[in-house]
Amino acid sequence: MRQDISHSDLVYSTAQKASAAVTSPVAASWSRCLNLYRLQPEEARKPVQVDEATYREARERMERLIGSSADEVDRLYQMVGRSGCCIILADHSGIVVDRRGAPGDDVEFRALGLWQQTLWSEASVGTNGIGTALADERAVVIHRDQHFMSANIELSCATAPIRDHLGRVTAALDVSTCRNDVSDMTLAVLSQAVRDAAARVESNLFRQAFAGARIVVVPQAQSLSALIAVDGDDLILGATKAARVALKLDDGLIAQGLPAADALRETHNGRTSDLDDAERAALRRVLSRTNGNVSQAAQMLGISRATLHRKMKRFQLH
Q: Is the pTM of this model over 0.85?
């Protein structure tokens, strides 16, 4: 009880300091919980279980994502599941739609509410890995007494949001543990593993959404999840959140039909026009398909061998 009281006092005193909320994401979350959601840290509040219809709707809505993330969730479980951790996948509102955990830990995790059909939003149970990652739209680590509710200070959570092909947060991937010997180094490793897994899920979702397009990794972002989908005319069809940030893209620019070369700021190497670029690229493709056989290339293009030679000379293709 003394621990509960001291934790509650810490939450109240910290959340009431405006400067703390500015400098600390955890303090900012505590402030939201007190002032926006009207929660009290000393409440014996557990995650609510949503009704069957709501849960079924969430599962159906998340069906593709659950399938796309299954390998990553399984891989995470193989890494940490036997060391007292469970893996949680929640939808955009914080409803747990999938989980992995060792059978020997099920009783403890179920008692804490880390189970299918429970709701882990900030508005429901205060600062926690899933709810705060969804609220802040970023990866978080919430370690023991960083939780808002005193009832949850035995938990340590590392969570990353998952974004859909339009860059919108659509889910959260979480690793939680009740072990009291979890170090900052261990949490850092767990956090990196969760973020990497979430990035791979995002990439899978993006590639599925633009299955017929060419997928390009944005080099400026230095992130494997920074992807753009490009059509046959070099126009951008879609972009992940990381790519949107790196290239300053939004839905409006994408809808207008922005050339990928322009977005990537590719140089033209002194060439004079897009038409020249297109013709040069077409010639290179045909010559590549014929292994440099000019006669075959000219036949495929429907032009004379002499005309092709003149074009090759013009574009310095040898």
A: no
